[in-house]
Batch of 2 targets.
Target 1
Amino acid sequence: MQRLILLILMGQSWSITGQLYEYKYMNTPKSWEDARQHCIQHHTDLATVTNMTDMMRLKKAANHIPQTGAWIGLHKSGNSDRKWHWSLPGLEFNETNWGSGESSSPNEYCGAISKNLVWVDHGCNAKKPFICYNETSERFFFIGDTKTWFEAQRFCRSNHTDLVSGLQQLRDGNLEAIIDPEKFSSYVFVYIGLFSDAWEWSDGSSFSFRHWDKNYSDNDKYAMLTETGMLTTNSSNKPFFCYEDHVILINESRTWEEALYYCRHHHHDLVTITNLDEQRWVQEKTKKATTPYVWTGLRYTCTLGFWFWVSDEVVRYKNWASPGQVNECDMSGAMETGGDHKWFKKHDEEKFNFFCSK
């Protein structure tokens, strides 16, 4: 145990918190395909964008977005199969509550709910009331001012967090309380953060973030960031954004100490997760794991009685599975591969895949 504590303390003292990935702006215009090849050869891939914070990071990386716009990694998949997503990033789309005959109607690619909270597919350009969710206040807001689905999404992101999304929010008792039955009877359906499209990220990740300009065309194949900070489509040569990934999943089963040695010898350290955005970035990679859990840089000190990150970060953001898990000596933190990707306290002699930071 003393040797392991010494190993942790002798590790690198700096961390890359908030930099699990970074954006690089390339101002040489290229086609989308050529831009992607450049990014793969010199960095990781064309930029993947996970949320509104990333949109601000892109604009900062470029200093100024040109009038022509700049490519990112969002593109139309070759088979054009549409998939349903949640507007609020980071939510899995698995269990559903569709009404009979819903979810597959042609040209109805946005989701709404009826007064009994059953889901229906709906045309995106129809003007309907909608429900916003505010992550800071954990409150719902029924907006009776009717808008198209994309207008509603932009309104919620500008004034709150996003359109109401995910089963947990839709089953919250407070949601039903804010819905005005009289308004519902007038409009029949109300928009929620549910949409279907055939767009994918070039690196293969399943992030659902979209932030389309009202003039975008669903018939084009490639997406770019405009100077207004919205996404639209085009086909001519553009500057582009690459991203550099600083997290790597190691598909080898090792004890926590072996994983720590490996990361510090071959990369930088076991990964540190300090906020929800970083959690979502890391959990996306668990889809390629071969073990039920994946080691992180979380470690419990039995002597001092608290959890810490080996990068020397304080554990402020937490995503533990159950408060009933007991703290014991020789325990480290692992993220579950499936489910909600919660953190579990595991004996450090168990063998799992692991995340290194680069």
Target 2
Amino acid sequence: MPAECIDKIASFLRRSDVELYFQIHPNQVALPSFNPPSEWEYWWNWAGQPLDESSSSNSWCTTKWQLLWLYYKRESPPNWIPFPHEGIFEDIPVELRNLIDQARSLTIPRDSILDDSLAIPARYRTSGMSPKKAHEVLRMTGFIANLIETSELKPRHVVDIGAGQAYLSRNLRDELGFHVLALDFSEVQTHGAARREESNKRSTKQLKQANDVQIDGQIPLATDLNLGTLNYETITIDADSLVSVTNRWMTNEKTLSSTTPNEGPTPILWVALHACGSLTLDILRAFAGRLQQKDRSLNWIPVGAVIVGCCYNMLRPEDRVLTRKDVTLTPNHLQLAAQTPDQWATSPAKFEETRLAMRKVVWRALLERVLAGSIVPQLSLNCSETDGPCSVSRPEVKRLGRLNDGAYTNWEQFVSRAEEKMGVSLLGEETSSAGTKGSALESRLEVFHVLRCILGPIVESFILLDRQHWLREKLKGSERETNVRLVNLFEQEAGSGRNVGIVASVVVE
């Protein structure tokens, strides 16, 4: 049950040693003044020691952080990694192994329950989509088709919330024949979707002419048979505006739609593919609020919702936790919730990306140590035309900002690029020693960062279960029984880190 799972996760997140991983940033750990908390003593000393020879003899596992990650993945290691003997894990402190085991057990499974056999192909609309976006659009279309097919209620009207370039909207119209309202807050996105629509129409017309109506032996598009419609609208989306715009659209649809009128309110499906920040909560509030209304004169009713959230760092403070107010999620919690350590080494190329990402975190932290110890800003001499002494100005140190990957080729090159961007000269022995490969501090920073990333999926699990439980509670007492579940729609390996959808569907007795 979600409530029981939330209790266990909440208890874990409130542990003093666990809270510290979210309160402390790697940049703080690197500072000369940092004193490790007593709760970390069991791994701090271990992390600063060289890797045991029995572990380092393995050509893949050469650092403490890799050893920890391999322990985390020991039940399902990537096929390309030569898995070492179990004995190497005995080098890891038992308290650290227990922490990682608990983290794994509290994280909800993320394997997709779907496969591509359920995906509905976007035969003529994949232009412009990245492989990740195409994967998500096809999977979500297939899931929605199956959801409708297995339900007694057969909604033919869909509101795509936060539609962006409307890839999903067009696929729902073209492949399933739905009447779709595509909503987005950005005029740029809406105009881009409309331009893409016109481009697709022209290319489809040319293909039809070249292939004598049928294309690759397939029937014409749903739009060619006038089975579906698509309208675009740009609005600021919240719970109230979502209900208002849907009501306005449905009032027009009643007049314009060629569908046979139903008895009672027209069933509506709300969908959102990556509802950023608090948009997920706005949709769920609108969904619950509409179902709780007892006004029989309403001409539409939401009978289902398929919502995939994202961008937890953009959540409004009041939306971070809905049911367990004894848990506080900080910006650090929300940033780490997006981590996917399960996917760090799905291929050799992906592992190299992970190593680079680790280097960026650690070297930036080491740079903070250098800046705290030896920094000489570039000085400038200011002299006025009148008599008087010249003054020396010491400019503020600029932010480092984003560096390209090439800046992290080696420590010396990184320091050089940092000096150039920040307008400083980094001098002294501290600068050269900070980047010494395999140093105790570097290893401790790596271990610390890996542990924070392993804890991140627990935070996302808490957020998802918290939303599911909240919606179930909100819908209690409404006239229509509604099933609320979490569904793993996409493959994280395909790049879809946020792969869990909140699916609500009205149950018909």
